[in-house]
């Protein structure tokens, strides 16, 4: 059965890749709209950036994959841990940077964990089934989004009510949990959930509940290591009320929790360690449109708690640690149309965060460990009738501990409509304050300076054959100053966060190619080249070359199949033993395939396989990666 399934999946992949449509071309081009680079909807062609979009259709074609796995296939993004055990922590590397330089938004609201080292949001909390679309804006975006948006902004839009009346769906899928050493066809991962949405007159709502249970692979790499379990539940409630054509109010409440076993370290197993993360978020967004513009407030509160139970090999006891962070974010944004082709975006963003810690790794009192930030900012946008577009702005960071700092950007682009060519360039600065953990934990350092980034980029986007073929490429150069790194010491506390004196330079190229021969076939590829100079510990997991290719084929109105190929170049890593051994992780290639069938308007089925050829590879030294795995599922609409 296993061999036949592999043959079938291989055949479908080959058919998909080399299919030649025999029907008349009916390709339709729809103008894409983006939000990330101005905080308001505008035509993608008027943007001065190459913004990658993972659409609802793309998510459907990759059904069964996690949000981290899907993002890992986007040009310029490397998410280490996305192909490891379900509970493995994720590390984000974009444009030569690392996790703390990536800002994640959910429905336009910054999400983070103020008690963690990097403060970056944990994508393990978010089930992919709640996502409608993802926008990825690469490069420094601190003018619009503040500290932390130094290498990328990932804006995740969750699902909303779609039409009058009440509709809903329920899904269930089951999958395997295999490594290349341990394989079977038993269902060891269960995903299930339902969603109900509707609208009546001025009122709309969307409710979703999702859960996952996985008897997963071992986090650490080794022979006969026990499986590490992972469990997650997520509830998301959104409501909206349209008071008039001018005034609209949206609100949300969100609860996420996951529990996972984890191992001692690289190559070291444990059946005692347990980790739990629990998050509660809620917020509101009132929006008002007036004659020459619109204004809205994005306000949210988040409470996140993490608990660790870790076996201590010195005392042979179980140590417990507790972390808690609270974050308040309020962003008041106004768009004013100054003239037909000119508008001004002004805003004030206020943030508060604190951090509490207790247990084996020391006490941290949140009466002291807190930040407050108030940032006014302004951006001017000019879209000319002859193709010139300019986006330029500045932000004043007013930080409770680090005082005032100014960041700015200038982003001109030119659209030559006659030949469907868009030329773009930008220069921007970013400002990243140390995390509360880096300042106040047992390894903290109150003398830390903020990190400073400068990024320059130049690129183009060209369309051919009536936009059936789209090619874009961006070259970037990024300079980082005062990088914060963990330095081992010979005296207590044995390690401390410190600023690195040397500057870090990163440069690279990101290329995307999309071909739509007919409306039923989409071929896409992307290539990323990244080179980091003066590389230190946290930067060593960045592959120099990375290539992705995908094909989506709508065989019939009911039958669809897709495949995704990925090549990841070799990279260096450190094993954290007393000698800090450096190892080389070999390059690898993987292939995923998916097929879905719509039985009728109520029922659809899908089957997917990841790492089709069971390639043995390593993402992080000493930790397991997933081998060939299968997943099947069904979805009911009502």
TrEMBL record:
Top-level division of the source organism's lineage: Bacteria
Membrane topology: Multi-pass membrane protein
Family statement: Belongs to the TonB-dependent receptor family.
InterPro entries given in the database record: Beta-barrel_TonB (IPR000531), Beta-barrel_TonB_sf (IPR036942), Plug_dom (IPR012910), Plug_dom_sf (IPR037066), TonB-dep_rcpt-like (IPR039426), TonB_rcpt_CS (IPR010917)
Name of the protein described by the UniProt record: TonB-dependent receptor
Record keywords: Cell outer membrane, Membrane, Receptor, Signal, TonB box, Transmembrane, Transmembrane beta strand, Transport
Domain TonB-dependent receptor-like beta-barrel: 186-612
Subcellular location field: Cell outer membrane
Signal peptide start and end residues: 1-21
Species: Flavobacterium bernardetii
Chain ranges of the TonB-dependent receptor plug domain: 44-151
